[in-house]
Every structure is written in C-alpha cells, then in structure tokens.
Write the structure tokens for this entry.
Amino acid sequence: MGHMQLKEIKAAPYERAEVKKGYTDQSLHINLDKTDIRISPIDTAVKEKFIGGKGYDLWYMWNAVTGSTKWDDPENTICISAGPLGGTPGYPGGGKSIVTAISPLTGAPIDSNVGGYFGPYKKFSGFDVIALTGKADQDTVILIDGIESKIKIFAASDLPETAYEMSDALTRYFDEEKPVNISVVTAGPGAENTYFGCLNFSWFDAGRKRVRYKQAGRGGIGTVFADKKIKAVVARFGAISMKTNNPADLEALKTVTKTHAKEINALDPKQNRMALVGTTHLVPIMNDHDCLPTHNFKFGSHPGAAVIGEDVYEHIFDKGFDGCWRGCAVACSHGVKDFSPFTGPFQGKKVFVDGPEYETVAGCGSNLGIFDAHTILEINFYCDAYGMDTISVGTSIGFVMECFENKLITTDHTGGMDISFGNRHSTLALIHQMARGEGFGAIVGKGVRQMKQIFATQYHADAAFMQDIGMESKGLEFSEYITKESLAQQGGYGLALKGPQHDEAWLIFLDMVHNFMPTFEDKAEALHWFPMFRTWFGLCGLCKLPWNDIVPEDNKDTEEPAKVIKHIQWYADFFSAITGKKTSTDDLISMSEAVYNFQRVFNLKMGYGTRDHDTIPYRAMGPVTAEEYESRQERYDTQLTEKYGMDISGMDTNAKVAALRKERESQYEQLKDAVYERRGWNRNGIPTKETVKRLGIDFPEVLEVLEQNGVK
Amino acid sequence: MIQVDEKPVKWYQGMTIADLLEQMEDVRFCSVVRLNGRLVSSPKFADTRIPKDAVIQLLPLVAGG
C-alpha cells in the first residue's frame, strides 16, 4: 500500500446553524451519484412528530425509497442522527448516534444505536440528520467540518484497509494537533464482502492517546456504506460543554445531569460494576439461568463459561476511563491493550481491542463452543477491524457448526475445514475468508437466511431442520439470549420491528425468573410498554443502560420496579430542560409510539410487516432435538404433565418433543394476537387506521400503504 | 454477623443465600447477589452457604442487553 491520498473533488462552505434547544433544524443530504451537497430545513411538523434520532432517520428514508427499493439500489439512504438530547457531556449515555438504512439481510429498515462522538459532532456542526444516498464511482471520504463550516468530498486512494487503521489515519490526517476534535465513521473489507457489515464510530481517547471505536452492528448498514463506495465519513468539531446544545433551562439540565451521574457513581460499584467489567457480568448470570447461548442456542449453559466472564475480563481490560461519550458515568466501553493476534494480517503485532461486550462473548464464544477469553478477543478485534457485526458472525458460524456436526454440510463444502463446535482455528479462518469474500466464508457472510437456502438447494441439506435451528427472524440473526423458557422474550425477539435484537424488549427475568407476567395480557402489556419506552432512547440520542442497568436503592419500593420510574422522571426532566417543552413521563411513550408504528408501516411498504414475518425458528421456543429435550428432561416432562395435563408414560423422547412443540407454537401464536391487539394492530399485525390516526401519522402515503394491504 | 447492602445481619453456621433472602422483605426482584464480590445467581441460592463475616450485595434487577 502506498501513502494515503485524498483528492478534494467538492467543497461546500455553509453557514453553521445555531443549535437551539437541542436542535439545529437543518438536514444535510449528500448524493454520491452527482457529488451533490444539499442543506435543507427540517419542517416543524416533522420535528413535532418524529422528535429526532431514529424518528428523523426513518422519515428521511421513507421519502428516499420506494416499496421496491433494494439494499444495493442507489436510492437506499443511510441516515445518521443524534437526537435533541445527544451531545450532553456528563449525562450518562448522552452521546449516541442512530443509523438506519434498508438492510441487506432483511430488505426492510434497520436501525442501530452506537456510541462514539460522531452524532454530537455532526449535530454541533449544524445538522440534526445526515442522509447519504446514491453511489460514488470511486472510493470516497466525506468531511463535515463544523470548525471551518465546510463540507468536503474527497476521492480516496491507498487508504488503510481495515477500520482499525483507517480510523486512526483519518483522525490524524484531519486534525493532527487536536485529534479529539475528530470522529470517523468507517466500515472495512468485511463490510464489502458480507451482508452483515457494521459501521465503526470513533472517538479519540485522550487518556490513552489513541483512537477507539464502537460499532453500529446490526443489519448490515456497513455493507450499504461500502456498496456506496464510502470509505469514511468524518465529523470535526471543537470544544463542547453543557451549553453547546443551547438548552432551554441550563440550571435544570445541570441538576438532572449531576443527579443521574452521581447515582451511577455511587451505585454501579455495588451493582453491576460496569465501569470495571462492562457487560461481561452478564456471562455468569446468563449461564447460571440457562440463558447463555451455547452450541448454536442448543443449550443455555456450559461449565466453560466460568473462564469467559467478568472474573477474567476484569483482569484483562486496560485500566482507565472508558466512556464512549464524554463524562459518561457508566463508562462501560472497555478494551484490551497490547493484544497480539495469532492469525491474520495483524498476527504477532500489538493491537488495542475495543471490547468484548456480553453479546460478543456469548455469540463468538459460548455459542461456538469457544471457551477461551483470548480467542474471543481476537474474533472481536478482527470483526471490528474488518467491519463485521459480531452478533451476526457468531450466530451464523454457530449455525454452520451445527450443520457440520449433523453432516448437512461436509468438508467438501467447507474447503476442507473441520467446522465443529469449539474449533477456534476454523472460526478465525472463516472470519478472514468472510472479510476477503473468499471460499466457504463468502457463503457464511451472506447470513443464516441465505445459507439455509444455499445449503438446501445446492447441498441438499434438510430444509425443515435448518428452519428449526437457523437462528434468524426477518433475515436478521438473533442476538445472544436463550428464550426457550420465556414466552414474553420470544415475543421480544419475534415481534421486534427490525428482527431479533434485544433493544426493544428484554423480559427474560421478569417473565421466566420472577413470573411477573403470567397471562397473555400481562405479556402483551409488557411487549407494548417496553418497546415504546426503549424506542425513546433512539429518538433522543441516548443509551438505555443508565435507565435500568443501575437502579435506585429504593426502586423496589415503587409501584412498578421493572420500569424504574424514578429514572423515567429524570429523562422527562432532561427532555424538558433541553427542549423547553414541559414533558411528563407519559409523553415519552407517546413520542415513541408514533415513530414505532410508523416503522411498522415502513416495513409494510417494503413488503414485510405482517404476521408471517413475525415468525421465529422453533429453537427459540423449545427443544428441537431429542438431545436438547433430554438435557433438560425433568423441566420438559414436568411441563407436559403439570402444565398441559398429558400422560407421557408411553411416550418416547421424540413424541414428547412433538407434543411440547405443538403447545409452544400455539402459545406463540396466541401471544401474537394479544400483542397485536394491545398495540392497536389487526390480526395480521398491521396498525389499524384508528391507530395511525390516534398517533397522528395518518399521512396520505401511510394510509395508501395500509389500503394496499387490505386495511379498510 | 454479615453485611447485606451495608447493613449488619445476624449470621449462623450453614446459612445459605436462600435462607438470607427468606428472612428479608421486598426481595422479589433479587435474582443475583454478590457474595464477597462474586456473582451468585438464583438457581444457586439454596446451595450457596454464606461464610462468616461475608459482605453481600443484592443486585436489584437484571435488565439485560
């Protein structure tokens, strides 16, 4: 590789819009077909209805694409927004970006919530939302320079190949003296060659004097980014304070920020200790509760989990402040310095690994039968550097391993590789292949849904079995929780708008451990309220962890402890302080409900968004195989006899598997009915006209989509 | 004595986490505790004996993700 070259092909000076009460009220549109840069105001009506963040992203995408737009069509649009509260230094989790696009995996809108400084820098540079459309004809770097008030588009050549090196090189290129002013969004070679490419959002870690990054992982937005030949989008901005959002009530903002941060500082050390261990505390907890995906979600625990949890990573993580946003008290973005990979292009070199988080440990560790903290680090490093989502990588390889062990695929298909559970060498070899788009890795990089089709049609593998064990829904790979014993969480995954990601609802403990929602109606209520509230974080540019991962000591005395009402009030106060709109806790739900239903209609516009698409593989509901059943025989036998009143004395294991399956599949369908009713949707899972009218999203184009789908 | 959420609680030989929680009020959300810094989850409460002078924190809620 030669020396990095950036040739300016377009520069557009602009007048930087002042931030008022968290908003700039300006949008930036870059069309790569024409190298066109356009800035336009955001209508007040859009602001009122869509709030910001994911709401803005979806609205601009909706207007950019048609129902027939595919992920690799030029009109597919990547939108990035920070929301009105994003960019508040010191507020825990107060610096997130929300990214959307039409997903290569699902064909529908996908959204991803990510740390790093890009979203706030972009907003303070003058833009609430940016929309990237079209396709460049050469590798392109985009700079949004809020210090010099210029947008620049560069033709790029000889850039470093990986996101790890490219983020660093571009940070230093655009502000050598003050690298902290730079945030880079980039993908990597794996994003070009798989369907689950992620985006890396960087910030400069002043303490360690190095670039760090977090990932917008889900749904292949990095793949869309690479398809548009965008190598990087860079935001540059200077000093930030609490005044930068120009809040309506600075004193109120200071008060609520200090109050929330103080509580986290006091209680995190007593609770999850995320400032020390990130989310790796979840590994032993999930393992003990039989919820840690093991061997492609077949089992929920394994003795080896003891060496891939917080006890180990606490000692491996580099000590120091690890917030992915300035002053965040949760500070859970840990990493490992001087790690030396044993494979791939960085073999033998010393690198800094950002991570791992729980999802990566579970997906790329236990789910693959790899119980080795250092191998998980190496997988984590390469997935990020190549720009591939660790969740989809882990869940996809888990599927391949189970297919291999069941002889649905053989070494004839894998290029001679033994892809059995626990084979870390093959796992890493596959990841390098995926990144290069070569060999069997090129097939794995298409994701579980396409693999099922390829294995069935080309290798004559058992399609029905693969449907049962292939952990995807809507085309998106499952994130890393076992849901067999939690019907509510089966709905949390299956009824999630974008596919099985836990950011809409995480109800496993409330349902399975505490049994707080025994009826379908209870579950439906939870599957209404929690997705609506969690959506709100994405509208505003916030992280959800400070809401309910650290809870007040008196939370247990409140009427509904699961909702952590005290914190919700703080969020309402936060919103009021920034925007100047007196906001109640109920208002937060109302904001989300409109955007949530709009996204469901958006799915419908793209040809999805109905009951059939809320299907989940049976492995998410119960034991597929006799081996699985027998591993938890007492549990399942008891359910068949006591819960369903069956006489199982004459039944062999396969008969019991079938009997249990019939019951559980029926329950899931009943759950759908209950949830659809609670959400104001018809039996086919489509919002009714009354619902969209109540929520004020009864735009003509929304009504047209409903009518096209039989809603009168 | 042991310390539970920074408050002294009377300890006896053979006391388990399950025994401790049974004598406490309002612990319905407690599915995980830290016993001398180590996580112990509810399936192991009945089998985990509390050592003398232990320091225990009750994790109020497991929120996931």
